[in-house]
Amino acid sequence: MAKIVLIVGSVRQDRNGIKVARWFEQKLKERNHDVHFVDPIELNLPLLDRMYKEMDDPPQKLKELQSAIKNADGYLPITPEYNHSTSPVMVNTLDYFLEEYFFKPSAIVSYSVGGFGGNLAGNHLRQIFAELGAPAISSMLSISRVKQVFDENGKLLDETYEKRADRFLDEFEWYMSAFKNQREKGTPY
Fold first, then answer.
1. Cα(13)–Cα(47) distance, rounded to whole angstroms?
2. From the centroid of its chain, how far is CA 19?
3. When you count CB atoms within 10 A of the terminal residue's CB, does the N or C end of the chain come out lower?
4. Across the beta sheet with 3-8, what order do the strands follow?
5. Class of domain 3-185 as given by CATH
6. Strand, helix or coil at 3?
7. Domain boundaries of the chain, sorted by first residue
8. What's the first-to-final CA gap in the chain, in angstroms?
9. What is Dmax (Cα atoms) for the chain?
10. Residue 189: pLDDT over 90
11. pTM above 0.90, yes or no
12. For 68-117, how does the pLDDT look when each residue is reduced to its tens digit (9 = 90+)?
């Protein structure tokens, strides 16, 4: 069992990402993982002015998020693609922290209403997670035409994603285990 922080990357009305995120949350729980579900709508974080470590008295919701990120074994961001990049709310949520992410893997899920599945956003997010010290696993799961993959209630309609998601999560679990093993031996700093 791993501790995984799942981060939703959209706050738009009628957002498709919440369906993807809830589906992945269920899949992770079926694998007996402890999932901390991060929904930026519930956090309602202001635009970043000071990082968590620079705050004298952070709000309680930020303390809880910091604890979850610090104690996680891995991170699963669910990103839309906005203007060939990840969403501003994803970046804002991630940027409150830094050292908390070190030496733990991330596994990126991207989606779009079009045919490319948010690949450009996912690739941009790879760069961000690398800088945060939480490099992405080699695979990325991209969901094209997300409105045809999930119904309005979040039920998976395209069963081909089951096998793809299982392989993706198998790889993520392998990386979490490998990183955890190495963290137990010590880190460079």
1. 19
2. 14
3. C
4. 34-38, 3-8, 74-79, 109-111, 141-143
5. alpha beta
6. strand
7. 3-185
8. 26
9. 49
10. no
11. yes
12. 999 999 999 999 999 999 999 999 999 999 999 999 999 999 999 999 99
